[in-house]
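Dear Dr. H.,

I hope your travels went smoothly. While you were away I took the liberty of generating a structure for the chain from your last submission, since the lab meeting agenda had it listed for discussion. I wanted you to have the full record in hand beforehand rather than looking at slides cold. The sequence, exactly as received, is reproduced here:
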Amino acid sequence: MEPEVLSRIIQALDIIHSPFASNEIRLEAQQYCNSIKDHPNAPIFGHFLALKENGQSDVVRHFGLQLLENTIRYKWIDGIYNDSEREQIKQAIISLTQKGTHDILIEKQFIKEKVAKLFADVARREWPTRWTDMNNLLQNLYTSSPTTQELTLMIFQYLGKESDLRDSLTCIIASNNILREKYPDGVKKDSPSSRKDEITIMQGETDSEGWLMLWVKSLEQLLVEWQCQSASSVIYEKLIIATLSTIAIYVEWIIARSIAETNVLLVSCKNLLSGCHEIRMIAIECITAIFSRTFQTPEDRALVFNPIYEQDGMELLFLSFKMVQPSQDLLLEENDYAYLKRYVEAIVEFGDKHICFKNNTVIPKQFPKYLELIYEISKHPSNFIASMAIMFWQSAIHHPHISKTFKEQDQLLLMLLELFAERLKILFQKDDDNKTTQYIDMDFDSSSEYKIFAMAFRTKLVETIKLITQMRPIESFNWMVNRIQKTLNISPGKEDLDGDGACKVDSPVYIIFDAELTLMDSIVIGVGKLIKSNEGHDINYAKIIDGMNSLLHMLLNLNYPDVIMSNRYLASMLSFVDMLNMDSRLLFQVLQKIFQFAIFRPPGFTISPTSSFPQPVYRLRCGAIAILIKFGTSMPDVLMNIYNDIAGYVNNIIDVGNNLVTRKEKMSFKKFLLCIIYYSKIPLEQKKALFDPIILPIMNKWLSPDITRFITSITQFRDVSGLNFLSSIIINMKQKGIYKTSSEISKEFHESIMGYESARYNLSLLVETVITFLVKAPESASKQGIPSSEYSGLWEQYVSTILSATLALIRIIHQLWNVESWKEYPEELREVLRLSKEDKASIVGRSLNIPTTKISNGKSYTIASMLDQIHKWLSTLRTESYNVLGRLSAFGLTFYSIPNVHESIVQSLFENAESINNIHWKMLLNILFVRPYVLKCPTPEVLSGFFPQLLKYLDKKLVLEWRILVEKGIQISTPEKAQLLQDNLDTNSDISDEILSEQVLRDLTRAYIDIFDQIFLSVPKKQATGDNTPSIFENNALKEYILCHLLTFKDTVSCTRTTQLCARILPNLIKHEGLRVFVGTSLLTAALQDETSPQSEFREALHDGYHKESHPTIISFITDLYVDLRPLSSAPYETFAQLLNMDHVQLQKFETSLSQASEGKVRKKKIKEFLEGITGLSTEEWFKIPDTAPVNSTRRVVAGVYSKPEIGVLDVVEDPYDVGIIDLFD
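The corresponding predicted structure, in token form, is as follows:
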């Protein structure tokens, strides 16, 4: 027995858990304990230490169990122990299960779980083929004592999670009657076995009622005993929980009729009425497992759910809800609330999956009771619980048969409308004393998290209201009109106003106001869609339209003194678009109302071309104009009938002399007119006659001296933008020794500063105007039924002018970032080129509000404010210029046929390529190249001309920068660190430039991959195997410079996406004979292992533990590559031999095994198994020992031709040999 070893083990464990031991001594003790796991007598030591009779502490006993576990998991089939020794180890574990643990109320849970798991681990390797009496043993354990009964249940919990054991377990869990009914011949005919000479036996013991029936009967008895509240109630409670936990695992997959036969669903429902939280929780888990199942036949579903459909099960479910939530006014404790959420999830899933299932034409007897229950749930003050219930209502309303039942119940639909209307009112209310708010605090960690949820829930409510409206349009509409006539006459009190005197959007009065308008919008839109679709021929549409006109007339007569409420009220006008398209009698009044708000100004407020309005007023004016634009898009043909009137009204508004709008608003009003022109169906010639007078003045501005000064040269750009002026001020202040960034600039310079501001603003507004007018791309026009050629025809004469001016501007901007051009300027002025806090926010994925650059009203100026203003102006100007180029490509041949267009773009964009930083490269790739310049080019010049050269440049740049980053050390190695970077922005605006640069490099790499993703996504599927594959497949830049490197950069997202891309284009690559060597060597090497060169900077994808998360994707790609390419080339074979250090004998054996697999899935599985040994490990897995695979003895298969046996496979046969642990465990 080696007592000295046992003594040292106990001593070492004491040291490890002693708070007084030094780190050195603790490490030495830990190393000793680890070494014992590899000792040949480890199972002997483990068994001795684990037995309760030896009096060891729980820590020592647990370590003893670990020694046994280590033996079973890692050494069971590696030749260390022979069959006799393995049998004795098995008997040792049996003895632990029978008598090795303390009483059920005394033994620690972690000891019980480990003993049960050891038993299950042996069973997984030995049962049923080599352990034929296990079932009898478990039956004896189950009936021996509460202690062993609980252990038996825990063993079955572990076994039930092993999918490979399901056939064998089915034969002892289900009754023999069910097995004979399911498998009359005792054979599973649809066995997944890949060998034709094996069959799966599915027979139970004669007259066996099965474990499931035994558990259910025990559960009923235990519940009765527990309710008696005797001294043994604690034991009964533990056994109830263990039994329900076990049943919950098996009802997920056991034969459906076994569930019906045992009546387990009804018994589980009875447990919901228990007063014990733990019992209720595990009971609802068991019920959820049944409700979540998918059934093969309607008969199976009907049998399983008969207790719910037709019997008392639904009443029990309803009573259990009332037991936990007797009143909606009761605020639940945390435990009860957690249970209720799980309960509601189960109830909703039952209705969604087993009442509203496809093709169901039968209404269950207890369906009214279910509706009563789900309605009660929907009334719950918790928005989270109510959001789950809405899923059933949506499914039921969409269901063709269930919805008919709803239509027959007039009151139900109106009750639901009332319920959802009230829910809209409390969705965004925040009152600390309100139960809804208290539940929000329980469910959500932050207000932003709740806001995301609430917006999604609001969308579901709105959609459901629309669906109900379309079922009962007249009743719903009349109900809504009666309601809002009382609720819309509302005004805010003093407590509802903010510092500017405007209504606060989070005030109770505004929330209620918004909810009522949302309700109205939903019903009006629902009715409008129904009328537009012309469904329901029995509906009196004329009456509904008259009613909608009356409602609209009432709304037009409403006036709200508050600008915030007016803005929300105005948005509701859009809900009447469908009706106005059919009956436009009130259209002009609607437009007048919108125009009235579009030019609204506070009393005494004077408007100038660049006025800055108070924020509420600004929102109202912008909102009104946006609504006009939406009207122009949604009903262009109706508006075209009164276009002259509209245009005259707009021209009067934007007339400079009237001082009604700013220059930016003037642009938006013109956009409204353009939308009507774009989307109307009048002939192109008529469109052109209306279009040119709007666009021509804008184009003329590009040629005006005020603009050409900006794009002639970088010297003039600096001069007219105010950079030279600001430089002179900084130099002057430094010479006088008074320079500070916070210092105010002398008032004598204010007039000049305002002039430069005005010049910058004019350029920005011009570029922004072009973007705004170009935003309606041909694709959008096509959705409205307008040919894209018409859209291009409108712009044809202006595209060249826009292109040349934009390229000139971009060239100047790129030159501005050239460090050499700043030598004569003070260092402080270069601040306009550096990252601002807003830039850093953008890098880490957070959006910060950047105020629009506006002309100052003669206030004070500082150096800091001027630098910040110019920085933002340059950043915006660059982004908008890139956007203009991206939008121009939407014109197709009109754009691409411009003479030398590609050469002009290359020259303008890349003559200062070294001055473009990674942030701007990412912008170029995302805005210009990926979407849409490369994809929309109708000629091959882009893919065969400058594009490969661009790719080579970017690839070289990325390789170099990744090499430098790896040498310096990667900072953002996990998603957690990326999140920390984002969070730090709030508290540390000076976050390290190195970390930000790394994040930008990762973003650029991913944007680079987007190019290829978009290109190959655009390849028609018919080209996947045809002859007309894109010429880019032949391009060396793609082969040698791109894919291989992208697989190796230390960015998991990039690696995964590149691998997926390679898998997608693999058939095309292999189809080309000239590419096969590249695919089988370079590409496979990149995916497999280390580069052969000792100077390699990168470890390859599969062998690199950094890409651990990508390994499944990489292995799948390598599998496809080898299987598809190997019959055509020896390259993958030779690569395997070279990189995996495999000799030809090993590889031949592997390929022989591969060739014997007849199915593609089996071949791929063999390759995956072959590769699993060479995958890299993440750092936390470096010292993890791989689990040994269990011997394939647990499948109930036999060799040869089937003949029905006289003795069942699981029948007990007496073993003539007396085997045990007498010798080994002396």
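Two observations you may find useful: Residues 697-848+860-938 form one domain. The mean pLDDT is 83.

With kind regards,
E. W.
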